[in-house]
């Protein structure tokens, strides 16, 4: 997929544990608490300490607007979290974060990028258009606020040309 030029106001930068405040601002604004998908600051700091983990933060006019957190193990990687604050959605920020994540992953020699997403999440549209395909399903993995259950879908995308 071709990468559109980034809006002037948008800057992507590698983040670290020092950016935990920015990450948590985006986390709290982005993830619907009903599904319990958001991570705590402690969980984020714990994973940022591990080898093979990288964080990309999207800054809009200097304020945190989104982030993507990825973990690589051997030559496979998982996109653990991606979120964009509601006021900046549909401006291509998640697409830019995903592009940057895939570029970094390829540079590190990652063969496949994996992720898990709740069935019905609009993010599935983003993943579909980026060539992810479904490889698994965990039935009734998420519970909504009203007790309704949602499957978790496992998606994957080959990043190196030789792998399917
Ligand atoms: C999913 C999410 C990250 C998308 O962020 P975003 O910056 O608005 O996405 P983009 O603007 O880069 O969208 C790129 C494409 O993805 C698809 N897309 C994104 N949001 C969509 C929506 N609400 N409905 C349908 N398609 C959507 C579209 O194809 C879109 O292209 P278009 O705007 O030209 O139609 C954001 O809605 C979010 O933070 N959601 C809550 C957190 C979450 O659920 N994260 C995913 C966990 S797996």
* End-to-end separation: 17 Å
CATH topology: Aminopeptidase
In terms of DSSP E residues, the strand content is 35-45%
Q: How many strands in all? A: 7
For this structure, what is the CATH class? Answer: Alpha Beta
Q: CATH superfamily, please?
A: Gcn5-related N-acetyltransferase (GNAT)
Strand order of the largest sheet: 1-2-3-4-5-7-6
Shape: globular
The SSE order reads EHHEEEHEHEE
What binds here, in terms of ligands, is: coenzyme A
> What is the count of distinct domains?
1
- Indicate the CATH architecture: 3-Layer(aba) Sandwich
Mean pLDDT: 94
Q: How large, in whole angstroms, is the Cα Rg?
A: 15 Å
Helix content: 25-40%
Multimeric state: single chain
Keywords: Acyltransferase, Transferase
GO molecular function: acyltransferase activity, transferring groups other than amino-acyl groups
Domain N-acetyltransferase: 10-160
Protein name: Ribosomal-protein-alanine N-acetyltransferase
Written description of the protein model:
There is one protein chain. The protein is α+β, with helices and mostly antiparallel strands and 164 residues long. It has one domain: Aminopeptidase (3-Layer(aba) Sandwich), CATH 3.40.630.30. Helix content is 25%, strand content 38%. The protein contains 4 helices and 7 strands. It has a 7-stranded mixed β-sheet with strand order 1-2-3-4-5-7-6, sandwiched between helices. Strand 4, helix 3 and strand 5 form a beta-alpha-beta unit. Coenzyme A binds next to strand 4, helix 3 and helix 4. Keywords: Acyltransferase, Transferase. InterPro entries: Acyl_CoA_acyltransferase, GNAT_dom, YpeA/RimI_acetyltransf. GO terms for molecular function: acyltransferase activity, transferring groups other than amino-acyl groups.
């Amino acid at each position: 997929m071709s990468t559109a030029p980034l809006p002037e106001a948008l800057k992507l930068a590698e983040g670290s544990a020092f950016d935990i405040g920015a990450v948590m601002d985006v986390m709290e604004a982005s993830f619907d608490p009903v599904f319990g998908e958001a991570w705590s600051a402690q969980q984020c700091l714990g994973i940022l300490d591990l080898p093979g983990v990288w964080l990309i933060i999207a800054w809009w006019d200097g304020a945190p607007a989104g982030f993507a957190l990825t973990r690589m193990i051997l030559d496979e990687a998982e996109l653990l979290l991606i979120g964009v604050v509601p006021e900046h959605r549909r401006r291509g920020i998640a697409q830019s974060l995903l592009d940057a994540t895939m570029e970094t992953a390829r540079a590190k020699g990652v063969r496949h990028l994996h992720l898990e997403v709740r069935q019905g999440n609009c993010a599935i549209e983003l993943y579909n258009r980026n060539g992810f395909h479904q490889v698994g399903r965990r039935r009734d993995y998420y519970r909504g606020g009203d007790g309704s259950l949602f499957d978790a879908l496992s998606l994957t995308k080959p990043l190196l040309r030789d792998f399917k």
